[in-house]
């Protein structure tokens, strides 16, 4: 299923009469990736290595289902970066090129909350999809799986939920012998604020 179709499905669910019978939350989510975006590799005289790209941010929609279960769909902007270095025959660097890949992630997560007095720890699990553009030779895979854990607390009418999320992406399509490959494993530290 394409990432745009998943987002349309999530929005459609939020717009259905049955969904409005359930509590629906909207919010913002931000954070950063802990691990490298790309695999470091050497192909002949070309070295490719991951370059940190910074923040992850976007929006979330959550529908409460039954008891402690809910369904959350996120749309996260997560730019990826890599650097290509050409090394000459004598070991001297002849060229350095930094590149970025526009990347959107769309995890759709089932979330289970544990009921405690002040905070509610939670676990989440589900498929993740991504769409990328401006690839600069990269060809990121479009699907994976996400799992996470966190805790939420309330302040006024806001729900504040820090979380750690692990993503396992499928292998990239082979775009050529010197193409950069995204890392299969990613860990993200995220903070969601919803109302």
Helix and strand arrangement:
Elements: H1 3-15, H2 17-20, E1 24-33, E2 41-43, E3 46-50, E4 55-64, E5 69-77, E6 80-87, E7 93-113, E8 120-133, E9 143-155, E10 158-169, E11 185-194
Antiparallel strand pairs: 1-4, 1-11, 2-3, 3-6, 4-5, 5-7, 6-7, 7-8, 8-9, 9-10, 10-11
Structure description:
This protein has 195 residues and is mainly beta. Helix content is 9%, strand content 59%. The chain has a single domain, classed as Beta Barrel (Porin). It has helices spanning 3-15, 17-20, and strands at 24-33, 41-43, 46-50, 55-64, 69-77, 80-87, 93-113, 120-133, 143-155, 158-169, 185-194. An eight-stranded antiparallel beta barrel has the order 1-4-5-7-8-9-10-11. It is elongated, with a radius of gyration of 19 Å. It starts with a helix and ends with a strand. The model has no long low-confidence stretch (mean pLDDT 87).
Listing every helix as H and every strand as E from the N terminus to the C terminus, the arrangement reads: HHEEEEEEEEEEE
Percentage of residues in strands:
over 45%
- Tally of strands: 11
Q: Treating each run of at least 4 consecutive H or I residues as one helix, how many helices?
A: 2
C-alpha termini separation? 29 Å
Largest sheet: 8 strands, antiparallel, barrel
């Amino acid at each position: 299923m394409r990432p745009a179709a998943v987002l349309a499905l999530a929005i459609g669910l939020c717009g259905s009469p049955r969904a409005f019978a359930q509590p629906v939350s909207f919010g913002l989510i931000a954070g950063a990736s802990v691990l490298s975006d790309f695999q470091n590799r050497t192909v002949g005289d070309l070295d490719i290595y991951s370059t940190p790209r910074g923040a992850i941010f976007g929006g979330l929609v959550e529908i409460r289902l039954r008891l402690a279960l809910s369904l959350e769909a996120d749309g996260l902007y997560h730019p990826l970066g890599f650097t290509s270095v050409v090394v000459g025959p004598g070991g001297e660097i002849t060229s350095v090129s930094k590149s970025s890949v526009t990347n959107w992630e769309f995890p759709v997560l089932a979330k289970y909350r544990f009921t405690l007095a002040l905070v509610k720890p939670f676990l989440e699990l589900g498929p993740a999809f991504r769409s990328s553009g401006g690839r600069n030779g990269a060809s990121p895979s479009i699907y994976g799986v996400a799992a996470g854990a966190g805790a939420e607390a309330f302040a006024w009418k806001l729900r504040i939920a820090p979380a750690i999320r692990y993503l396992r992406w499928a292998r990239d399509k082979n775009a050529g012998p010197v193409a950069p490959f995204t890392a299969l494993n990613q860990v993200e530290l995220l903070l969601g604020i919803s109302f």
